[in-house]
Design brief:
Layout: H1 3-8, H2 13-35, H3 38-41, H4 52-69, H5 73-96, H6 101-108, H7 123-137, H8 143-166, H9 182-203, H10 206-272, H11 278-290, E1 295-302, E2 307-311, E3 334-340, E4 346-354, E5 362-369, H12 370-375, E6 385-391, E7 394-398, E8 410-415, E9 420-426, H13 428-434, H14 438-538, H15 544-575, E10 581-584, H16 585-595, H17 597-602, E11 606-609, E12 614-617, H18 619-635, E13 644-652, E14 655-662, H19 693-703, E15 707-713, E16 717-725
Parallel strand pairs: 11-13
Antiparallel strand pairs: 1-2, 1-5, 3-4, 4-5, 6-7, 6-9, 8-9, 10-12, 13-14, 14-16, 15-16
Helix pairs in contact: 2-4, 2-9, 4-5, 4-7, 4-9, 5-7, 7-8, 7-9, 8-9, 8-10, 9-10, 10-11, 10-14, 14-15, 15-19, 16-18, 18-19
């Protein structure tokens, strides 16, 4: 078998142990019923026994738990559905008052004997079986729901056990129905707790298991308190119904005795009269009828069972049935029989013997209509109660509403001598008034507190994890800070080395610039001189092609001279030490325009400089900056448009911004960065220049701690924004 199959069918010890224990309990109970061994069925004589159908249900649940322990989930589902069906069938019998005698005979017929007589499964046991079966059916696909069902079964079992321990029979006995046995309660406590713990552990991530399981335990306690409060209310209602039943019986018994006494008095009076004549008897009967509400007529029944006469004569005469004689006694002196009138109404014939001998001479009977009789007793019925009166097995009066809860009915003998019984039942409206919302409030509050407890525990876990994370971050930050300090020291050393290297490089650049200035210029100047002498002395002897060659030599020499001059200027802008002084930009503009007066006049230029500020820097390089900008505008002017130059300034936070604008040829916006490149020329190639002017401007601004940006408008001009540090700051 491969590793996957081994893991799949590996048993789960907790479920296996619980399944074995519960199955063994069920087998022991079945053996106790079969062998008639009470100790295996009923631990104590005053405790309820484990019923045979309960043992079958527990056996199914134990088998389902064993199957789940070996991950046989399809079989577990089938066994769980069978267990739930068994519990649901019993619950339906209780709720809908179904007749399932054949089912009971099938499940308990093998257990009946003279020693132990099986009964019906308790309703709370049936509910536990339903919850357990549902939990087993959902154990594979809905483990969290299965855990909730397990919590319900666990709570019911724990509540019943606590009831046995504390003497609260209402926790394990619902009304007058079959109580749950303590062994059954212990089995469901084990079953429910195993299902709840195992399924919650399987359904939840490790971080949530602890809080959720604590929450489920709290929810189970809330259900226990709810059940305890409900059972306490039920016990109080039961006591109230019992007390009211006895009071109603006493009141109705007294009223019936009054009717019987009135008939007995009439019978004695009639016996005492020497002359019995019908007129006097009818007068007395009329008086008794007027004082006895509900009495329809009075009859004289002869000893042979025939009716002698009746008052009133036209009264309805229901069929007469005399009581049967017993072997050791004659007919009773007082008896009662149910009657049915011609209109279908139910009634009662109440008879009193004529004569005191053992053999009555006849009977004086009062025929009552049940509705009128018992409605006349309405003063004896408290509001919220309904009654049923039976004579033998025949119901003669019943005003109980349909759909009322039959489990609250209380039946007592009304008159044993007359074979009358009374059933008293509270109506639903009265029951609703007796119940309070406290159990529901406790349940909802308990469940809410369980949720809050889960949230609080999870929040505490997250807080602890966050604290550990913060501590780790603090330690990491400390290590980083230490590393930063080490790197700073190393960086300072490197900066010092780089600074020294940069100074050496600048010195080399300075020497190189000096070399360019002195060594390269000399041969270039010599070439220019020789070219000029060649043109002067021998120009006439050369043809047109030769003079063209001389012109190309002269242009190349001038370009070489311009390159040397540009490189010197760029080197000077990059490496020459800067002076730090306040420089008036307005004065520099005037100086530049004076130096370039001829070129500006040729371009028809006008220069406007309004209130330019002073900045801190090197006046010589800033002069070069302004001059390069003006030279650039003159070169790239539009031939047919007079050149206009404008310089303005505005504060920009902690810096000073100077804007230089012209109305020349301009450039495309996407070329705004190209204009500052070395040897980059944006615009017409016919205009002379090396493409170093703007590069030198940016190098000067960078060395002064500022920036310069360009904005081009093709055919309209260009603008350059120069941002200098505040004059109070070091450049």
């Amino acid at each position: 078998m491969g590793p996957n199959n081994t893991q799949r069918f590996a048993p789960q010890p907790a479920r296996a142990a619980a399944g074995v224990l519960i199955s063994a309990t069920a087998v022991a109970v079945v053996v106790g019923w079969v062998l008639q061994f009470p100790l295996l069925v009923q631990i104590r004589a005053d405790w309820s026994p484990v019923q045979p159908d309960t043992a079958i249900g527990l056996g199914l649940a134990g088998i389902g738990l064993l199957l789940a322990a070996w991950n046989r989930y399809v079989l577990t589902f089938c066994v769980g559905a069978l267990t739930a069906s068994l519990g649901g069938l019993i619950l339906a019998q209780y709720v809908f008052e179904l007749d399932i005698a054949a089912y009971l005979a099938l499940l308990t017929g093998w257990a009946a004997s003279d020693t132990l007589q099986p009964g019906k499964m308790a309703p709370n046991t049936a509910l536990c079986l339903l919850l357990t079966g549902a939990a087993l059916s959902a154990i594979r696909w809905l483990p969290l729901l299965s855990a909730l069902f397990g919590v319900g079964a666990c709570a019911l079992g724990a509540g019943a056990l606590l009831g046995y321990a504390m003497g609260l029979d209402a926790t394990y006995e619902w009304g007058s129905l079959t109580p749950m046995a303590p062994a059954t309660a212990a089995a469901f406590l084990l079953l429910g707790s195993t299902l709840a713990w195992q399924n919650a552990s399987a359904a939840l991530r490790p971080a949530w298991r602890g809080p959720i399981l604590v929450g489920l335990g709290s929810a189970a306690m809330a259900m226990l308190f709810f059940h305890a409060l409900v059972t306490r209310e039920d016990a109080q209602i039961k006591a109230s119904v019992d007390a009211t039943t006895y009071r109603i019986r006493t009141e109705i018994r007294t009223k019936i005795e009054e009717r019987t006494s009135a008939l007995a008095a009439l019978a004695r009076e009639w016996e005492d009269k020497i002359f019995r004549w019908r007129g006097a008897w009818e007068s007395d009967a009329r008086l008794v009828l007027s004082r006895s509400p509900g009495m329809d007529s009075i009859e004289w029944v002869k000893r042979d069972g025939k009716i002698g006469w009746t008052y009133p004569p036209d009264a309805d005469h229901p069929a007469l049935a005399l009581p049967t004689k017993t072997a050791d006694a004659g007919p009773p002196h007082e008896w009662a029989r149910p009657v049915k009138f011609a209109d279908g109404a139910r009634g009662l014939r109440l008879a009193v013997a004529l004569g005191d001998s053992d053999e009555p001479k006849g009977w004086l009977c009062g025929v009552f209509r049940s509705r009128e009789l018992f409605e006349a007793f309405s003063t004896a019925l408290p509001s919220g109660y309904a009654v049923r009166v039976r004579s033998g097995k025949t119901t003669i009066y019943d005003n109980r509403p349909r759909g009322a809860a039959r489990e609250w009915s209380r039946t007592l003998p009304l008159q044993k001598d007359l074979a009358l019984s009374l059933t008293v039942q509270p109506v639903p409206g009265w029951l609703e008034q007796q119940r309070s919302v406290l159990p529901q409030v406790v349940l909802v509050a308990g469940l809410a507190l369980s949720g809050l407890l889960v949230w609080a525990l999870r929040a505490a876990q997250l807080s602890a994890a966050r604290a550990r994370s913060l501590d780790a971050e603090v330690q990491a930050h400390k290590r980083v800070e230490q590393r930063v300090r080490e790197l700073n020291v190393d960086l300072e050393d490197r900066v010092a080395e780089r600074t020294a290297a940069l100074e050496r490089t600048n010195q080399k650049l300075t020497r190189f610039a000096s070399f360019l200035s002195h060594e390269l210029r000399q041969p270039v100047s010599a070439q220019a001189l020789w070219a000029e002498l060649l043109e002067t002395q021998y120009g006439a002897a050369l043809d047109g092609q030769g003079r063209e060659y001389i012109g190309e030599i002269q242009r190349s020499v001038r370009r070489m001279d311009d390159l040397i001059t540009g490189q010197l200027a760029l080197s000077e802008a990059s490496s020459t030490p800067l002076a730090s002084e306040f420089v008036d930009i307005g004065s520099l503009v005037r100086e530049v325009t004076a130096d370039l007066k001829a070129a500006l006049e040729e371009a028809g230029a006008t220069v406007r400089a309004n209130d330019l500020p002073s900045v801190r820097g090197d006046s010589r390089q800033l002069y070069q900056l302004i001059r390069n900008l003006v030279d650039n505008s003159v070169k790239y002017r539009r031939p047919d448009v007079p050149l206009q130059l404008r310089l303005s300034s505005s504060p920009a936070g902690d810096s000073v911004e100077i804007v230089y604008e012209d109305n020349g040829q301009g450039f495309c916006p996407e070329d705004a960065e190209r204009v500052f490149g070395i040897y980059e020329r944006v615009g017409s190639r016919e205009i002379s220049g090396l493409g170093l002017g703007m590069a030198i401007c940016r190098r000067i601004m960078e060395r002064h701690g500022g920036t310069i940006t360009a904005e081009g408008r093709p055919g309209e001009g260009a603008s350059f924004r120069m941002r200098f540090p505040s004059p109070s700051e070091e450049p």
